[in-house]
Design a protein that fits this description.
With about 280 residues, this protein is mainly α. The protein is built from nine helices and no strands.
C-alpha cells in the first residue's frame, strides 16, 4: 500500500511541478496560468499532449521543441523531478502535529504537506527569476495554512485544536512583523533594503503552517543557510559586495525542513550543536 501511495505521489508531484513551471513563467508576465495551454515560448506552437508528459516528454524530444527545434531549458524536467521528490518526502512530514497515529490526522497531514510544497515551489522559482514573491500567492499560502490548522477540529479534541489555531494565528503575525522589522533595521544600518516585503509575507506563511515554535526554527534555518550562501558567493566573486540575491528559497527551505522534522527535533539538534559551547 505504501509503495502504491508513493508512486501516486511521485506521478502527481511531477505533474504539479510541470504546472509550477507554467505559473513561474506566466504570473510575472501577467498572463493566465490556465489559458492557453502549454506552448513553446519561442515559436508559439502548442505542445502536444504526449510531449507534455513530465520529465519523459523532455527526454523524448531531446530537449528541443518538436516544431522549431529550439532548445528547451533543462530546468523544466529538473523542477518536475524535484517536485516529485518533494511530494514523496511529504510522507515523512511531522507537519501539523508530531503525533500522527490517527488515520484521519495522518491523511490530513499528508494532504497538508503536498499542498504546502505546491505553494512554496512556484514562489521559490519566481523569486529566483525576479527577486519577487507575489503577494497573492503568499496570501493564499497563509489562508491555506490556517485552513488546514482549522481542520484539526475534525480529527482531534476541540480544546487542543483551538489552542493550536490561536498559536498559528499569532505565529503568522509574528513572522510578518519580525521580518518587516528586520528589514527596516537592516535598511537603516546598511542604507539599502536587505530584505523585501515579500520575504516578510513568506514568513507569515511559515507561521500559519508551523506555529510559533516552528516559525522560529524555519527562520533560523533560513538565516543561517542564506548567510552561508551569501558568504560563499561573495568570497568566490559570484556575488558583488552589495548584490542582492533571493532570500525566499531559504525561507522555503526552512519551512519544509521544519515541516519534515518537526520543531521539537530541530530544537534538539540546535541544543546539541550549540548547547555545549
Amino acid at each position: 500500500m505504501t509503495s502504491v501511495l508513493g508512486l501516486i505521489l511521485v506521478v502527481a508531484g511531477a505533474c504539479v511541478g510541470s504546472f509550477a513551471n507554467v505559473v513561474a513563467w506566466r504570473l510575472p508576465r501577467e498572463e493566465s496560468v490556465v489559458w492557453p495551454g502549454s506552448h513553446c515560448p519561442k515559436c508559439g506552437q502548442a505542445v502536444r499532449w504526449h510531449d507534455n508528459v513530465p520529465v519523459l516528454g523532455w527526454v523524448w524530444l531531446r530537449g528541443r521543441c518538436r516544431d522549431c527545434h529550439q532548445g528547451i531549458s533543462s530546468r523544466y524536467p529538473f523542477v518536475e523531478f524535484f517536485s516529485a521528490l518533494l511530494w514523496l518526502s511529504a510522507l515523512w512530514g511531522h507537519g501539523l502535529l508530531a503525533a500522527s497515529d490517527q488515520l484521519g490526522l495522518a491523511l490530513l497531514n499528508l494532504l497538508a504537506g503536498i499542498v504546502l510544497i505546491s505553494v512554496l515551489l512556484p514562489l521559490v522559482l519566481i523569486d529566483i527569476d525576479h527577486l519577487w514573491l507575489p503577494e497573492p500567492l503568499c496570501r493564499i499560502g497563509v489562508l491555506l495554512g490556517l485552513a488546514f490548522t482549522g481542520a484539526l477540529y475534525f480529527v482531534i479534541p476541540a480544546p487542543e485544536a483551538s489552542s493550536v489555531i490561536l498559536n498559528h494565528l499569532l505565529a503568522a503575525s509574528a513572522g510578518l512583523l519580525a521580518l518587516e522589522g528586520l528589514s527596516a533595521l537592516a535598511e537603516r544600518m546598511l542604507g539599502q533594503p536587505a530584505l523585501g516585503l515579500g520575504d516578510a509575507k513568506l514568513a507569515a506563511v511559515a507561521g500559519a503552517w508551523l506555529g510559533l515554535g516552528g516559525v522560529l526554527v524555519a527562520l533560523a534555518i533560513a538565516v543561517f543557510s542564506g548567510a552561508f550562501f551569501g558568504t560563499v558567493g561573495r568570497l568566490s566573486g559570484r556575488l558583488g559586495p552589495r548584490q542582492p540575491f533571493p532570500f525566499g528559497p531559504f525561507i522555503a527551505l526552512g519551512i519544509w525542513l521544519t515541516w519534515i522534522g518537526g520543531s521539537e527535533w530541530w530544537g534538539q539538534q540546535w541544543f546539541s550543536l550549540f548547547g555545549g559551547l
